[in-house]
Design goal:
Helix content: 40-55%
Number of strands: 10
CATH architecture of the largest domain: 3-Layer(aba) Sandwich
Largest sheet: 3 strands, parallel
Bound molecules: glutamic acid
CATH class of the largest domain: Alpha Beta
Strand order of the largest sheet: 1-2-3
Number of domains: 3
Structural class: mainly alpha
Shape: elongated
CATH superfamily of the largest domain: HUPs
Distance between the termini: 75 Å
Order of helices and strands: EHEHEHEHEEEEHEHEHHHHHHHHHHHH
Length: about 475
């Protein structure tokens, strides 16, 4: 069974890069009918914050990336790390180190000054020190040879043993280091595939050494290229990239974000748009691109517009609701709201735009756009509006019939069709731009339409 994991450090909100890593792990497990585990790497007590745990969870949930197990917290698993550390110590594969921090810092500085890669000088390696508060535990790394691992995307990756020193696995304060905790977690959670950013390639040989020392086969590694900004540097806020929850607030749809994130570094022929079900069906590690993808704000917006047009109105209703908080939606039938959405969804790029455009459907308080009213709600149109209000009672609300009716009316009255239509539009929506006039009339229904036309006549009379 395939088991993947997403192990963020709760030191910030979930961003696009992290969300893409989570998505790839989630898709791979779903594609293989496996499991996806969430765990928080929160051993950095200073920087880890409960509010970030909540915000990462909320982001994943909103995206629909639900986890099958967890969330686990490394801070609650310290005992487990110590058990494995103890085993390595007893087997002589790890040793305690009493070198004071300041001394290590000083030596490090000296090596850097000489242009050398700082490495621990193994002073304590043969001292056979017993555990004692204040002592760190180091792994005995091999001095010669190679450390090799297979990356499913990149093939064999080889490091020289000389590059790795006797690194710390348990700090002098008893906390595990990242490399140790991550390995113990991946072992105890039976992770089969580790899909993560390629910034972790350099950590992998250390993790391999820990697996070796424990005589346990490592999982499969898949290091994916980082997401870059348009200028080719690592994606950050500077590029206008927002956190996942900020995209939510900005009126993006989760299915659009998922589709866009999937396409950031993964492809399936030249297909651009995928539903989540299609992604699960088609996701495959071999189609991950080895050259880094670049984030493109406009493209993301285009994906959102696409999914605004192509998602079901029910789905859109669920997601637009938070943006309609100022309306009492209970006053309307669900059918009414769904057909309203049907008329605006092809015209809006975000849920914020959608909510704005839906205003006239959800309020009786139509406020006329000043220029629109000046231009179209004119005294000479009032009698024609009056006739329309009268005739509408008898007319079926069919687009063709309404259009023919208005065209005939334009001819017989000598007014321009466009001016009549715009006057009705302003009367019904307050604006000069809106969904198609006949679509609107159909959704609003006769009663509301007639009422609003009458109000516009009153308005003209009052001028
Ligand atoms: N906490 C690490 C990160 O956020 C996880 C790295 C890993 O996947 O092993 O980058």
């Amino acid at each position: 069974m395939v088991i993947t994991r997403f192990p963020p450090s709760p030191t910030g909100h979930l961003h696009l890069g992290g969300a893409r890593t989570a998505l790839f792990n989630w898709l791979f497990s779903k594609h293989n009918k496996g499991k996806f585990i969430l765990r928080f790497e929160d051993t950095d007590k200073e920087r880890s914050k409960p509010e970030y745990v909540e915000s990462v969870k909320a982001s994943l949930k909103w995206l629909g990336l639900n986890w099958d197990e967890g969330p686990y917290f490394q801070s609650e698993r310290i005992k487990i790390y110590h058990q494995y550390a103890q085993k390595l110590f007893e087997e002589g594969k790890a040793y305690y180190c009493e070198c004071p921090k300041e001394v290590l810092e000083q030596k490090k500085k000296e090596m850097l000054a000489k242009g050398l890669k700082p490495k621990y000088d193994k002073i304590c390696r043969e001292k056979k020190l017993e555990p004692k508060p204040g002592r760190a535990l180091r792994i005995k790394a091999p001095e010669l040879g190679e450390i090799v691992f297979e990356d499913l995307l990149r093939g064999k990756i080889v490091f020289s043993a000389e590059e790795i020193d006797d690194f710390i696995i348990i700090r002098s304060d008893g906390m595990p280091t990242y490399n140790f905790a991550v390995v113990i977690d991946d072992i105890t959670m039976s992770i089969t595939h580790i899909i993560r950013g390629d910034d972790h390639i350099s950590n992998t040989p250390k993790q391999i050494l820990i697996y070796k020392a424990l005589e346990i086969n490592p999982p499969k590694f898949v290091h994916i290229p980082m997401v870059l900004g348009p200028d080719g540097t690592r994606l950050s806020k500077r590029h206008g990239a927002k956190s996942i929850l900020e995209y939510k607030e900005a009126g993006f749809l989760p299915n659009a974000l998922i589709n866009y994130l999937a396409r950031l570094g993964w492809g399936y022929g030249d297909q651009e748009y995928f539903t989540i079900e299609e992604l699960i069906e088609k996701f495959d590690l071999k189609n991950i691109n080895l050259s880094p993808a670049r984030f493109d704000q406009d493209k993301l917006l285009a994906f959102n517009a696409y999914w605004m047009r192509n998602s079901s109105s029910k789905y859109l209703l669920n997601h637009v609701k938070p943006f309609l908080k100022n309306y009492d939606l209970n006053k309307f039938s669900e059918d009414y709201i769904l057909s309203a959405i049907e008329t605006v969804k092809i015209r809006t790029k975000t849920l914020i735009e959608m909510a704005e455009m839906m205003n006239f459907y959800l309020t009786e308080d139509i406020i006329y756009d000043i220029d629109g009213a000046k231009k179209f709600l004119l005294p000479e149109i009032a009698p024609i509006l009056g006739k329309i209000a009268q005739d509408l009672k008898e007319l079926p609300l069919e687009e063709k019939i309404l259009e023919n009716y208005l065209r005939t009316l334009a001819e017989t009255s000598g007014m321009k069709f466009k001016n009549i239509a715009q006057a009705i539009r302003v009367a019904l929506t307050g604006k000069t731009v809106s969904p198609g006039l006949f679509e609107i009339i159909k959704v609003l229904g006769k009663e509301k339409t007639v009422e609003r036309i009458k109000k516009a006549i009153e308005y003209i009379k009052g001028l």
